[in-house]
Amino acid sequence: xxxxxxxxxxxxxxxxxxxxxxxxxxxxxxxxxxxxxxxxxxxxxxxxxxxxxxxxxxxxxxxxxxxxxxxxxxxxxxxxxxxxxxxxxxxxxxxxxxxxxxxxxxxxxxxxxxxxxxxxxxxxxxxxxxxxxxxxxxxxxxxxxxxxxxxxxxxxxxxxxxxxxxxxxxxxxxxxxxxxxxxxxxxxxxxxxxxxxxxxxxxxxxxxxxxxxxxxxxxxxxxxxxxxxxxxxxxxxxxxxxxxxxxxxxxxxxxxxxxxxxxxxxxxxxxxxxxxxxxxxxxxxxxxxxxxxxxxxxxxxxxxxxxxxxx
Length: 311
Description:
By secondary structure, the protein is mainly β.
């Protein structure tokens, strides 16, 4: 009886193989988009808020330490449609061996001031900009911010799939800061405080998902600690593009890693992978503490993969 059962199973297996249905062949999952993240309000931040007031930036022509970067920004900052932001090392954010290069533009001491942070890695470059506001510093609709990402070549999904880890630093700009002009009181333009942190992004190129987070966050200019943020799991498109929701931890400084935190939907992020997964660029806009806004950026190389070395 056992022989007949075994023989029948073998015949069925051979029939399946003959029909092109090898039951032992590995199943390659199709790219998927995970379910929406939890607890996102109905009136949540619109998806185009991350690029915001930045209508374009000449990232293709930019190189590390360049004297200027040309930006198109709707922020009551530029006399024309576009303007050349000049290198301003006072706004650099340096952490974990990485530099986000600072640039600024202010037409006169009576006018608004905007700051740009830029970084490139491999085929990916990204920038963020912030003008904190004038007449009502930090108030909704009175500040202007945004960002842009550039990828020099077409993304190629790693042929073997697997997990890719990107480790580096994070930099951001707040919509609050000190006065940056001559008018008195609330008439003065302002310049943004800078933020920094340590970032880790993990991409699953088998199931085409990505998630990550930033810890050790602080206001660079004051040393004030800020809550951790998490980039909630989202799907990766075949183009290497992705978008998702930023969540903010509930404690400052972050809770003991062994203790759970509550997480609040605080903003959105957009990103791209470059090359064959060799680098990542992410820009984001979120509320870091409950009553202000932060425009942030991560540009980092692959540090380690599940198979060992990065491409």
